[in-house]
Amino acid sequence: MLAQIFLRTDSMGYYLIASVLLLAGMWGVFVKCGLKGWHALIPCVSEVNLGLASGREKEGRVAAAARAVIIVMIVIDFILNAGANSNPEALDRYFNLESVIRLLAEMVLLIYTIRMYIGLTEVFGQKRRWLLLWIPFDFIPACMWGWMKKYQPQWTAEELKTEAANYFSGARAEVLDQGLTVNLEERTATEFFMKKYLLRDIHMYIQPGHMVLLLGGSGAGKTTYLNAVNGYEKAKAEVVLNGKNMYKNYKEMQYDIGFVPQLDLMRGSDSVYRTLMDAASLRLPSDFTKAQREARVEEVMEIFGLTPVKDNLVVKLSGGQRKRLSIAMEFIPNPSLFILDEPDSGLDGVMARELFQQLRMIANQGKIIIVITHTPDRVIDLFDDVIVLAKDANRTGRLAYFGPIEEARTFFGRDKMEEIVKSINRKEEGGDGLADEFILKYAEVQHG
Predict the structure, then answer these.
(1) At which of 149, 177, 210 does a domain end?
(2) Whole-structure pTM over 0.90, yes or no?
(3) CA 436, 442, 447, 448: dihedral to nearest 10 degrees?
């Protein structure tokens, strides 16, 4: 039991009560997750099932092996202690070795059980702070989650093994001299010594002059995908912009990509002109003269309609003007790829449309624009393509669709982009729960 390993308590009464409560709680958890409850009573089998319930099957097998080692050591100890007078010196050497092996096994069991408890919090849709209770007193949350109706898993162990979650398309986008090619095999992160897949199997080619909408529900990996594309958070991927590999030539190409975050970091006490001049000093090549930087700033202000307010302080700008200024800062070095994370956040419909029309004009100059917006339907006529990311049953961001807007409507059988997002969201998130279906469907499209 994890509580005994963590606390190293020798109180037999506490151990027995806590063990019974843990078994009872895990029985309920297993049943809720679509497994056989009585498997909680069988050592090693219980660990394997905990791995299945938490979506951590490999961790379950390792924990079961560690539990088996501990049980074997206990049995051998019992047998040898029964004949302890036969060879005391040899027994002492064995017991020293046994202590080391058992300690290592308990450490492995502790680490991998915590990994599975992390997975269980995700399955039950709970906060990570529950681990503060699971680690020292696992029998308490086990009983709560196992027997209280309030706590229900978001998916069953069977759903975690769906075809889509384990399917890989084998597709690869062609690398061309112009445009953006993304061949992303995987983007992972390490959480408590555990490898977690954030994105997998995403391949596409975006033509120059295209304005692309990036769709996906909460947690589908939209921002992670954008950070992988712009090189801010590298993935196991090949990202090629106009014939140059982004990861291999990052320093040379970092200003070929303009990234506009949802929240800007502009100083309110600076004027519009000073803000853009500072951006020019940072983003234009060092061999640019002052006159050249000033000329570029004047040109960009004209493009974004900021010339009339060039002397205004940032803090005095309207919401729409401030958004245009944040985009103008990134436009100073004349990037080939523009990435914007919710540029219309906080803007009304009229101001948002005006902003997106400006982005459309930039795309028409041969630039690639990728945008996240939570209100896409009011400006969808301005976009060429849509990328749809969805969480598979393993909670990994996958490509459910990439292509023209009209074809997306046919593919998903929905007229509105917001309806497409609803179709791929899980049912407990208010969606239709069809993510895996569309991931597999799009994989078939890729294979022709």
Answers:
(1) 149
(2) no
(3) 140
